[in-house]
Amino acid sequence: MVRIIAIDPGSVVTGVAVIEAERQRYRHLYHGHLRVKGDAWSERLYCIFREISGLTAEYQPHEAAIEEVFMSKNAMSALKLGQARGAAICALAEQGLPVSEYPARLVKKTVVGTGAADKSQVQHMVGAMLGLQGKIQADAADALGIAICHAIHRNSPIHRLGVKK
Amino acid sequence: MVRIIAIDPGSVVTGVAVIEAERQRYRHLYHGHLRVKGDAWSERLYCIFREISGLTAEYQPHEAAIEEVFMSKNAMSALKLGQARGAAICALAEQGLPVSEYPARLVKKTVVGTGAADKSQVQHMVGAMLGLQGKIQADAADALGIAICHAIHRNSPIHRLGVKK
């Protein structure tokens, strides 16, 4: 059994998920999303760090996964996305968690069967795979998808950031 | 007396400085720079967080200052810069430090007398103002300049990020 925390950092909303995986069986433990827009921007940025630190303390995951950067053409968006990623990666690294990185296309291909899947297909499929009722918030669903993607590809030599304490 | 930690985050090198200020007198406590390039990029990113956490524990600053973002046209540079800023801001916020933000032009104008000053002028002037011998590494000199800029402008209503614990 491996317990995985997955993060989908965004310049506005960051999705977070925790699952357990054993062979091809997945168990849902947590999913949620955080907003990081607003006046006290840096305070909310720190919330990402604190939230992820809290979740790692609570769930004691063994490994972490994060979405590889979708390269915006807008430098300001990229900066904000970078800040959110920096906060998330620091929180994971502080726990000594190895962090793997997966492109969005691979996450969609793994969960839905096609890299061109839209958000609603990801929402539907992660819900079905984890036996969840009701509609899952889109960024939290992406994080669940990243967690499942990592569960499946964790032993293949795909982009590993290599965070170690 | 106020003790200030200042950070000049960069996508490759992050400058850090600690000074004490009392009226118009400044005392140098620390300056240094960290490289964040390389293979285990996220590990080095976490080094920014850890280094700043260590310095705040050691020097117990009262306030923090950071350089406002120089907006790159290159989205990949902006992303990396954002990640470094995210790591730095989280470390400062974790200590409950208020973080003020200053544009590079104001730092240069405050330290050298002109917003168009080049790096060597900043290096020379912060050395002279703090009574330091020898050449100071450019990013560390920028961080010292940000610290002095904050010492002078800290009571004026200039860009305050407003991080509070």
Mean of pLDDT of chain A:
89
CATH superfamily of chain A: Ribonuclease H-like superfamily/Ribonuclease H
The number of distinct helices of chain A, counting runs of at least 4 residues, comes to 5
Rough outline of chain A: globular
Task: Give the amount of beta strand of chain A, in percent.
Answer: 15-25%
The chain pair forming the largest interface, with residue counts per chain, is: A-B, 37 and 36 residues
State the helicity of chain A in percent bands: 40-55%
N-to-C SSE string of chain A, H for helix and E for strand: EEEHEHEHHH
**Category by helix and strand content of chain A:** alpha/beta
Assign the CATH class of chain A: Alpha Beta
Which stretches of chain A are poorly predicted, pLDDT < 50 over at least 5 residues? none
| Total domain count of chain A | 1
Oligomer: homodimer
Q: Roughly how many Å is the radius of gyration of chain A?
A: 15 Å
Number of strands of chain A: 5
- Strand order in the sheet with the most strands of chain A: 3-2-1-4-5
